[in-house]
């Protein structure tokens, strides 16, 4: 038995007119989007394993801001990869010092370190629905997650934003971060384009990517995100 619903979603699947998500959804991009939810056929093992959305986008694209809204509205647990690393950075261990150096340079921390922190956060949460924000930032991050966690994300959100908008937001962020300065943001943008965008393309090819216009007000962007999560609420 299938539950059918018609919605008009502002989805932007970059390269596909028809996208098939292996787990539960079939989504056809058109003027309106049909979502077919095989609710009754969902096995209990699927229900018990964590439901994971990765959240990607350049520095300042609004990942953290939108994750807070999604978490509050749809009951997801927000795990910020950068937040986990920053916490570790202040732990006055050797690893903490290494993370601080990499963050200052705008480089990516070793995947094993980041994935282990994410794994701990998933395991210690009561929630089973997760937004993993700022991860995977490299193909190496992605394969390390698949190897250590033994799963792929259910889907991936990607906030698409022009560089000049991202830079302006980062330089106005004012959270005292070691990497929110003109020099590091330039490096981070280079890393984003060379190392993170291939991961975004990987998920686009797999039909797992929701590309969202990251310009406009926080509220406008959230209205683009909302239908994606509304359509899931009966599933997870
Ligand atoms: N739509 C928006 N318009 C203007 N400023 C924004 C918007 N979304 C987020 N910001 C601000 O821009 C900065 C970067 O946003 P953040 O969510 O931290 O991005 P990211 O996690 O992708 O780096 C923050 O100071 C945030 O308050
Ligand atoms: N998967 C990740 C995520 C963040 N990081 C590090 O943490 C920094 C800040 O990440 P973040 O996600 O908090 O940054 P924003 O994109 O939110 O501005 C990155 O520039 C990297 O140095 C990492 O090494 N690996
Ligand atoms: Mg962030």
UniProtKB/TrEMBL annotation:
PROSITE patterns xrefs: ADENYLATE_KINASE
Gene source species: Nicotiana sylvestris (Wood tobacco)
Catalytic reaction annotation: UMP + ATP = UDP + ADP
GO molecular function, one term: ATP binding
The protein, known as: adenylate kinase
Keyword annotations: ATP-binding, Cytoplasm, Kinase, Nucleotide-binding, Nucleus, Pyrimidine biosynthesis, Transferase
EC number: 2.7.4.3
Top-level taxon of the source organism: Eukaryota
């Amino acid at each position: 038995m299938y539950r059918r619903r018609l919605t008009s979603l502002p989805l932007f699947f970059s390269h596909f007119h028809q996208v098939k998500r292996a787990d539960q959804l079939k989504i056809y991009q058109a003027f309106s989007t049909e979502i077919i939810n095989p609710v009754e056929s969902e096995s209990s093992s699927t229900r018990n394993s964590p439901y994971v959305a990765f959240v990607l986008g350049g520095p300042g694209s609004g990942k953290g801001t939108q994750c807070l809204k999604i978490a509050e509205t749809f009951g997801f647990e927000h795990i910020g990869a950068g937040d986990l690393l920053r916490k570790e950075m202040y732990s006055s261990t050797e690893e903490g010092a290494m993370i601080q150096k990499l963050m200052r340079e705008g480089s990516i921390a070793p995947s094993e370190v980041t994935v282990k922190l994410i794994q701990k956060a998933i395991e210690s949460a009561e929630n089973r629905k997760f937004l993993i924000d700022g991860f995977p930032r490299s193909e190496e991050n992605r394969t390390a997650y698949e190897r250590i966690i033994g799963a792929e994300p259910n889907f991936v959100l990607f906030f698409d934003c022009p560089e000049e908008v991202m830079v302006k937001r980062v330089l106005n962020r004012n959270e005292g971060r070691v990497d929110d300065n003109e020099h590091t943001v330039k490096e981070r943008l280079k890393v984003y384009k060379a190392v993170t965008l291939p991961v975004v393309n990987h998920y686009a090819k797999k039909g797992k990517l929701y590309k969202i216009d990251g310009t406009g007000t926080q509220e406008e962007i959230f209205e683009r995100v909302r239908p994606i999560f509304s359509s899931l609420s009966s599933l997870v």
